[in-house]
Design brief:
This protein is 52% helix and 16% strand. Helix 7 crosses helix 8.
Amino acid sequence: MKEAEINGKTLLIEGFKNVNIKNIDSFLKLAKENTEGCHLQFFDSTLIAGFDHLYFAAVNAVKAFDEGYGISKDLAVEVLLYASGQHQISKAIELLGIKQDSRQIAVLIIADTRQKAFNALKKVAQLLQGEQCEKVVELTDQKIRKIRRAFDIKDPEIEATLRNSEKDALTSLLIERAALLATEA
């Protein structure tokens, strides 16, 4: 699990593996009801390029809300939009949202207090009935090709951003796309 603070709010990001959600809508409703006062977003972690990918999406979303230029009316949805680099909620859900066959999930929680965030994570863990596993959020060599295809990232973009590794370049490009989304709002 990773923890950070954004504008006085607590951010938690955790991964889960071996998840089997039978009904997505029922699960999301139950999760929201059991974590009142927290903003929750669930991602199919196979397209998440590490902690920084989600952290900077959350930073941009919180800033958009605090400054009144958010695309969505819900902070958790705003995070999804920034993480996906999409303006349309349906496209963002299609790209990064959890699906019936999602077995590895990243959970992002934003709460006013650290205690609320950890309580929410505990309840989400009980509902998911999977194994907590931070590694499913990390960017692996196996994820690179899938992420590049899903986000339509071409070789010239990687080469122009390449400083240390392809992983670093890919993460930087996704963060940059999120930042650009903020300027287009």
